[in-house]
Specification:
Helix content is 95%, strand content 0%. The protein is mainly alpha-helical. Keywords: Coiled coil.
Length: 145
Amino acid sequence: MLKIDDLGLQLQAANLQLSDVNNAVLAAEEEKRTLLTENSVVKAKLQEAELRIDSFQTQFGVLNEQNSILQSKVQEAEKDANDLKFERDGVIADNKKLQNKVEELKLKIHDLDLQLHAANLQLSDMNNAALAAEEKREHYLLKIL
C-alpha cells in the first residue's frame, strides 16, 4: 500500500515536472516568436538604412559634378551618409545580438525537448510500475479471498 502511495506521489511529482517543462517550452517558444519578430523589424530597418545610404551616395556623386556653390550641400550629404553608416552599424550589431539570442533559444528549446522526453519516459516507467503494483495487489487480494 505504501509502494502504491509512493508511486502515486512520484507520478504526481512527475506530472508537475512535466507541466513545468511544458510551460518552460511554451515560454521559450513565445520568446523565440518575439525575437523573430524583432529580428524582422531590425532587418527591415537595416534594408531601409542601406537604401538611404545608396541614395545619399548617388547624391554625393552628383554634387561632386556641380560647381563650388553646391559644395556645402556635398558636405551635408557626407555628414548624413556617415550618420547612416553609424546607424547601420548599430542595426547590424543589434541584428547579430538577436541572431545569437535566437540560437541560444534554439538550444534552450532543444534542451527542454530533451527534458520533456526524459520526463515522458519517466512518467511511462512510473505508470508501468504502478500498473504492475496494482496487478500484484489484485493478485494478492485474490489469493487472500
